[in-house]
C-alpha cells in the first residue's frame, strides 16, 4: 500500500499566509489583553423590580421596590429625568441638582 500525503499540509507556508496568521494572532492578543474595550460595562442604578428615588433637598438617592411609594424625605425623579445607569446623563445631573419640598428642581445646597 502506498501512503498519500497531504501536499498542502506538508508544504511550508507562503509569506502571505504567515502575514495573515500573524495579523490574526496579534488582533486576538489585543482583544484578549484589553478585555474587549469596545464593550463597556454600565452598572444599573437599581436592580430589577426597583426604581430610583431622590432625597428631597439633597443629592442622595435610594432604590425602592416597584410596588412601594418613596419613603419619607424622598421623591420620584421628574419624568424623563430618571437616571438609568451609573454616570449616565441624569445621574451626573442629579449630583448637582435636587428637588425642593415643593417638587421644583433646584441647585443642590452642597453643590454650590
TrEMBL record:
Per its UniProt entry, which superkingdom is the organism in?
Bacteria
InterPro entries on file: SCO0607-like (IPR058119)
UniProt keyword annotations, A-Z: Lipoprotein
Protein name stated in the entry? Lipoprotein
Amino acid at each position: 500500500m502506498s501512503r498519500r500525503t497531504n501536499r498542502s499540509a506538508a508544504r511550508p507556508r507562503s509569506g502571505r499566509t504567515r502575514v495573515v496568521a500573524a495579523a490574526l494572532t496579534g488582533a486576538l492578543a489585543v482583544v484578549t489583553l484589553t478585555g474587549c474595550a469596545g464593550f463597556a460595562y454600565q452598572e444599573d442604578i437599581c436592580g430589577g423590580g426597583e426604581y430610583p428615588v431622590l432625597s428631597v433637598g439633597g443629592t442622595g438617592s435610594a432604590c425602592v421596590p416597584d410596588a412601594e411609594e418613596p419613603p419619607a424625605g424622598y421623591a420620584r425623579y421628574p419624568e424623563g429625568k430618571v437616571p438609568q445607569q451609573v454616570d449616565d446623563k441624569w445621574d451626573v445631573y442629579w449630583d448637582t441638582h435636587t428637588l425642593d419640598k415643593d417638587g421644583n428642581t433646584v441647585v443642590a445646597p452642597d453643590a454650590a
